[in-house]
Task: structure prediction
Amino acid sequence: MGSKWRKAKLALGLNMCLYVPKTLEDSPAVAPSGGRFSDTVSLSPTTPNRNSDCHVDMPTTPTPSSSGLRLPKHSSKSSKSTCAICLMSMKPGQGHAIFTAECSHSFHFNCITSNVKHGNQICPVCRAKWTEIPFQSPLTDISHPRSRNGHVHWPQDDAWMTVVRRLPPARLDTNRNISTLFQVVEPGVFDDDEVVDHQPIGSQRSSSTDVANHHSADAIEVKTWPEISAVSKSASHNNFAVLVHLKAPHAIGLLQSGVNQSEMPVTGHNSRAPVDLVTVLDVSGSMAGTKLALLKRAMGFVIQNLGPADRLSVIAFSSTARRLFPLRRMSDTGKQEALQAVNSLSSNGGTNIAEALKKSAKIMTDRKWKNPVSSIILLSDGQDTYTINSPSGATTQINYQSLLPGCMQRNAASGLHIPVHAFGFGADHDAVSMHSISETSGGTFSFIEAESVIQDAFAQCIGGLLSVVVQELNVEVECVHPVLCLTTIKSGSYNASLTSDNRRGTVKVGDLYADEERDFLVMIDIPADRSSNDYMTLVKVKCTYKDPISKDLVTLNHASDVKIERPDTIGQLVVSMEVDKQRNRLQSAEAMAEARAAAENGDLAAAVSVLEHCRKQLSETASAQARDKLCLALDAELKEMQERMANRRVYETSGRAYVLSGLSSHSWQRATARGDSTDSTSLIQAYQTPSMVDMVSRSQTMYLGSPAPRPPLRPVRSFPARPQPR
Result:
């Protein structure tokens, strides 16, 4: 058994803290004097008795010296037995793991992982650049105490340790034959999903509820603001703006600090709705090395934070697409099996996004059972080499919507409204196609520029999906005064329509996360008024939506209609600050779209000029002069886009994806990951909800190795830094 593990370890190029039991087929290992291990070697607190029935045999791998490389001669005996970082002893039997780099220098594993966390990926002694980076995962809860020897006390000795090998990306060869990812035969119909968890609903409301008081704890909050408070009777005002502001209810129990969402109840009053989630993961050749390792870690975080009533299915795709397992509840057993499937992924082949999305749609359409919330997460670092870019190299007009099955498009008659949240990974992905997929399905597009941000980006996304409190939301605005008519509703990517007489308008919003906000500007033509009334009632607002847990249809009538004064004469009027902020947001989004169009036509100078002009206009508005946070965020975002349009190379590498991710965020008024930041303190994160911030914070806490509120699930096929006491 031991020799097999060592052979597999060498073949895979892995460096892990690996303990292999001694077997009869192992040849006796005689350690030479002064010998050392080139992998991460874990030293037990006491040296095992070789005459006992059970002992630990340390694995070895070829070292630089055994491969014919000349090692530096400046390493003295004292330096080999002393950690160069903490200057403490590294003698065997002290209970601390030792990491020996490919340059032959050794350090305490805890010391060197702390050094790597701060961005140092070179040897502290000889400054050699490493290709194998030591990594230490968060603490696990070991129920049995371990003895600690030595003078240095590290709080992370019980962590799980491994080494991430930075491999060069594999060259993409779409012409070679690629074997299937897994040998399990898929059924013709994906109706093998696990039964959903039917628990009694705590809410006792009727099937149809009329909520008159918008201050109810579990109802949407509606507020309205007119552009100005008065219009003289003799004057008319075209495109008079009325702001309709919506805020979803707060989900009690979801956002408690330090509480893992997988532990929270998923049914009952004021609890969250369970989710059906399909993750579609790119494992093509370009994902080899660090990218795939970080993707597995990010998926591990997603799996750990799903609840027992949530269901997950994973599709891996390269030249072909394969379902790893059906929709399965994330119980303890389900999580372990999901982790095992994700950890088995390997990278090769081309990129077939269309086939992967068809398979994800098939999972959703064929399932026997349905959870209240459904969503798809798509991640890719390349361009589709089968549907859009044919292997033969034929150039045709690109139809990006062909990547998305017709049944999943927002305007499809099938009614399968499942958003695809797309994540473009790195500088080589096709941002236009990923943005088109998300926009057509009603999802968001995020740009992951830095590899290390992938887990935080996933955390932000599932932080929202695990907090859906409103579904199928429709907002209806109706004119009250008989002489008024609507001209348009500025709603971004949300479908808005007006009746033939322009007296009524509707916005189809869909789902809302807990505490999520939406703002729509309703434009009205106000004629001169010859009546004797001093006030004019403009519009009234009504919302209808479905409770995702109880399935109740809720109707919410706004308590007060929007009114303005109609005096004979008026003095100086002040524009509403709330309306001014939303106008700035819409104006900035329009400038981003115009700048992107100019950049795609090859005129980067014109694109930068459009953004600069918009920034100047923003600075002159009342809200900007009042140092409003949203206006500051918009200015910072426009400035960042200008810098990413400095030249064609920068725009092709990151500018296009950054702009498209920003457009996606503003059009849906929902947070996306852009560049290398998902930090809630960043100015560009204007749409983050508390549940998103909480989940990103949990992700960053786990990444930094601090104690998590709940011990993380023990990964499948991982090995502890020291043998477990028996």
In short: The CA atoms of residues 588 and 641 lie 12 Å apart.
